[in-house]
Design a protein that fits this description.
Blueprint (H helix, E strand, L loop, with lengths): L1 H9 L16 E3 L5 E4 L12 H14 L7 H4 L3 H14 L3 E5 L2 H6 L11 E5 L4 H8 L4 E5 L4 H10 L6 E6 L11 H10 L3 E5 L14 H4 L8 E5 L10 E5 L1 H10 L1 H4 L6 H16 L2 H19 L11 E7 L1 H13 L2 E2 L1 E3 L9 E6 L6 H17 L4
Parallel strand pairs: 2-11, 4-5, 4-6, 6-7, 7-8
Antiparallel strand pairs: 1-2, 3-9, 8-9, 10-13, 12-13
Bound molecules: pyridoxal-5'-phosphate.
């Protein structure tokens, strides 16, 4: 193992954790005591340190305690869990919801209870690791199509016609480029070839669609998709928790058979209560979603006119393309010297020759933060001959 670790270090892909000593937000304090502008969190709606959510969590801590010390079906279901499940279903326009400790668990526990060796799972090549792992735990036949490539998907659907059920699986937003899955076309193909659809809205919920209801809103498909998975750990407050929401029979069956649900603890009451408050806030106003959309459009336009190469995106993710791994690392380090906290991504996280800096915009950002970020990118970009 020491040898293995040395190999990872020598390959330059050893991941170090950077320590933050403040709450999550637009401005964070890093371990050396400096305050920096944060452009690499999934805090899309700026709710990670929201006072209303903290108040709801504090109140639940007093009324419902710290933990439940049980799985849901033994003695771990509080009224808060049921309310949160209903709130999630209302938000997505679905029939029912089942909570998990994380979306990793939701995806890990969704396939095996529903499908067997007679069935087919047809999965986008760039789907999240948790989807890939969930599929591995299931006996269904596996098919893969190139990222968002509808002719490849159609080809796979044709091959899978002899199977009993077909399930097409896609991320809503692909986290490295920020592109949105073409759910309208996926849905048409699913109808044509008699398949079900599952979408993971982790990076799209709260972000994509006019009111942030996700990719199903973006394509007018609310209530039409069989399975939606998502996380409470990104736009929705950023604490912990995942869910599967969709058709009633599917959720029912998952409650009976999904292993991460049956054999893992309920989420803490404070997290459930804050989640309920969060969805109430979403019902009251779309202010945060609108601010996020405005911020994102502003950032992309200014960066493009500064000369940066940004991948086509419809989310809060902007991939600033640099192509060279060392350059992306160097640029991220120089940006940190300018007080801008971003991360360089390179092989094996993205394909070779596709190195980039991923910028994530938040409703927590003010115009001055965006301007400071764009100015720093421009300065460092010129220094490094990127623009
Ligand atoms: C972040 C993410 C997950 C994991 O969510 P957790 O709740 O943190 O486990 C799953 N799927 C996708 C697409 C994600 O982006």
């Amino acid at each position: 193992m020491q040898h293995e670790l040395k190999g990872i270090e020598e390959a330059g892909i050893y991941k170090k954790e950077r320590v933050i000593t403040s709450a999550q937000g637009a401005i964070i304090r890093v371990a050396d005591g400096n305050d920096v502008l944060n452009f690499c969190s999934n805090n899309y709606l700026g709710l990670s340190n929201n006072s209303q959510l903290k108040e709801a969590a504090t109140k639940a801590l007093k009324t419902h305690g710290y933990g439940v010390s049980s799985v849901r079906f033994i003695c771990g279901t509080q009224d808060l869990h049921k309310k949160l499940e209903a709130a999630i279903a209302r938000f997505f326009g679905t029939e029912d919801t089942i909570l998990y400790a994380a979306c990793f668990d939701a995806n890990g526990g969704v396939f095996e209870p529903l499908l067997n060796e007679e069935d087919a799972i047809i999965s986008d090549a760039l789907n999240h690791a948790s989807i890939i792992d969930g599929i591995r735990l299931c006996k269904a036949q596996r098919y893969r199509y190139a990222n968002a490539d509808m002719s490849d998907l159609e080809l796979q659907l044709k091959v899978a016609q002899s199977q009993r059920f077909r399930l097409i699986v896609t991320d809503g937003v692909f986290s490295m480029d920020g592109n949105v899955a073409p759910l309208d076309k996926i849905y048409s193909l699913a109808e044509k070839y008699n398949a079900m659809v599952m979408i993971d809205e982790s990076h799209s919920a709260g972000v994509v669609g006019e009111t942030g209801r996700g990719v199903t809103e973006r394509y007018n498909l609310r209530g039409k998709i069989e399975i939606i998975t998502g996380t409470l750990g990104k736009a929705f407050g950023g604490a912990i928790g995942g869910f599967t929401t969709g058709k009633r029979e599917i959720i029912d069956l998952l409650r009976q058979r999904s292993r991460p649900y049956l054999f893992s603890n309920s989420i803490p009451p404070m997290v459930a209560a804050a989640g309920i408050r969060m969805f109430e806030m979403m019902d009251e106003t779309n202010e945060l979603q609108e601010k996020l959309h405005k911020n994102t459009a502003y950032f992309i336009e200014k960066m493009k006119s500064a000369g940066f190469d940004i991948k086509p995106t419809e989310s809060a993710i902007s991939a600033v393309m640099l192509y060279d791994a060392r350059l992306s690392e160097k640029m991220a380090a120089k940006l940190l010297d300018e007080g801008i906290y971003v991360t360089g991504f390179y092989y094996p996280v993205v394909p070779k020759g596709q190195a980039r800096i991923r910028v994530q915009i938040s409703a927590a950002h003010e115009l001055e933060h965006l301007d400071k970020c764009i100015a720093a990118f421009s300065k460092v970009g010129k220094d490094l001959n990127v623009i």
